[in-house]
Amino acid sequence: DLSRAFGHRPVVAKDTPGFIINHAGRAYGTEALKILNENVCDISEIDRILRDGVGFRMGPFELLDLTGLDVSHPVMESIYHQYYEEARYKPNPLTKQMLDAKQLGRKVNQGFYNYETGSKTGEQPAKFVERLAKYPKVWIAADFLDDKKQLEDYLTQHNIALDINPEPQTDSLCLVACYGEDTTQAATRLGVNPEQAVAIDMLYGIAKHRTLMPSLITKPEYRQAAHSIFNLDGNMVSMIAESIGFVAQRVLAMVINLGCDIAQQNIATVDDINAAVRLGLGYPFGPIEWGDQVGSEKILLILNRITALTHDPRYRPSPWLQRRVALHLPLTFTHES
């Protein structure tokens, strides 16, 4: 009652390491750091994808600079060790190196970005590709029909011819809307030529920002065509190196899965977990409700495929998530509901 009297939303949590906020917040920064270490793309691109595409208020590296690595890194290590080296919370060596080098973030004018002018500098601008004189036909493969429909509508709207053959023609751009894979794995699974293939992340749609991922051997003309096609309406495109699960898929799946696991451990109620993360961390949605919003079956597919391809226990799906997908229930479902 006292909290509400002051205009706050109270939540109740078990006495557990990190309570809710520091516990739930482990997924965002640590997965972004792992993606950076894998040389998928630079910090500017990761921040742009997660901020402008997914809808986080700040990119993970902007956020780490704001909070300061003298605060963030010790919390990462503390949670990791208090949970006896649980793989989901594993910190990254980079933040320890930066901490030792006193590159703490905004408070010292140097972190992932530079702040000597008083504002952030060093962010690389998004790259735009001009309209081409001619585009190849586009053949689409998608794990989900709604993704395929979105892509067909976009391409038709911009007068890009579709290759509607069961198998792609030898000169078509193969656009693959896959989940939890890299382009090489998706092309192999689909039996298409990886030299023609570019994958696209459809987890957050294509309304504002698009992430494209060519294979290691995608021909330059197909890379350029894909980039140009998705620049046609003036929206930003991020072209990343191969990553099992893109950027947004990996980060968002980890955020949602961790929220589900907090619920599975009964650390707090679903409503309190969602409220704490939404209000305390400033995420657009709480992690469990976010899973329902983007599609829990998509999140489970991402995690299952990444786990199968990497054998990394970090990505194992929570039983909370698995059971509700199997029973076609919302992730917010509880016995009480």
UniProtKB/TrEMBL annotation:
One of its GO terms (molecular function) is oxidoreductase activity, acting on the CH-OH group of donors, NAD or NADP as acceptor. Signal peptide: none annotated. GO terms for biological process: fatty acid metabolic process. This is 3-hydroxyacyl-CoA dehydrogenase. Keywords: Oxidoreductase. Residues 18-115, 245-326 form the 3-hydroxyacyl-CoA dehydrogenase C-terminal domain. The keyword Oxidoreductase applies. The lineage of its organism: Bacteria, Pseudomonadati, Pseudomonadota, Gammaproteobacteria, Moraxellales. The keyword DNA-binding does not apply. It comes from Acinetobacter baumannii. Pfam families: 3HCDH (PF00725).
